[in-house]
C-alpha cells in the first residue's frame, strides 16, 4: 500500500494508527505529509543478493525482511532499486 493510504489509517480514538506518528504528535509535531521516495538505494543485483541472502532469478518486486517496501529487480540492467517511503513531521520552535 502507499504511504498516503497508510497515513489515512486511524486507531479507535481517531489518532494515526502508527505508534511512532502518535508519539510525534503527542509532543507537538504536526504531520506535513507523505514522502514516497524518502530513501532510494540503487545497487547491482549482487549487492541485494548478498545483503538479503536471496537469489533473484527474474525481474520483479521482492519483499525484504524488515523493509518497508520491496526491492525492484531489473535483470536486464543487472540492478535492484529500493525506494522507502516516509512521513514528514514538523515541529514549531
Summarize it.
With 93 residues, the protein is of the alpha+beta class.
Low-confidence stretches: none
Strand residues, percent: 35-45%
- Overall mean pLDDT stands at 95
Radius of gyration: 17 Å
Query: Helices and strands: which structural class?
Result: alpha+beta
The rough form would be described as elongated
Tell me the series of helices and strands, N- to C-terminal: HHEHEEE
Total DSSP helices: 3
Number of domains: 1
How is the quaternary structure best described?
single chain
> Major sheet: size, sense and barrel closure?
4 strands, antiparallel
Q: For the record, give the distance between the C-alpha atoms at the N and C termini, rounded to a whole number.
A: 33 Å
Strand order of the largest sheet: 1-4-3-2
Helical proportion, percent range: 10-25%
- Count the beta strands: 4
Give an account of the 3D structure.
The protein has 93 residues and is an alpha+beta fold. 23% of the residues lie in helices and 37% in strands. It has a 4-stranded antiparallel beta sheet with strand order 1-4-3-2. The model has no long low-confidence stretch (mean pLDDT 95).
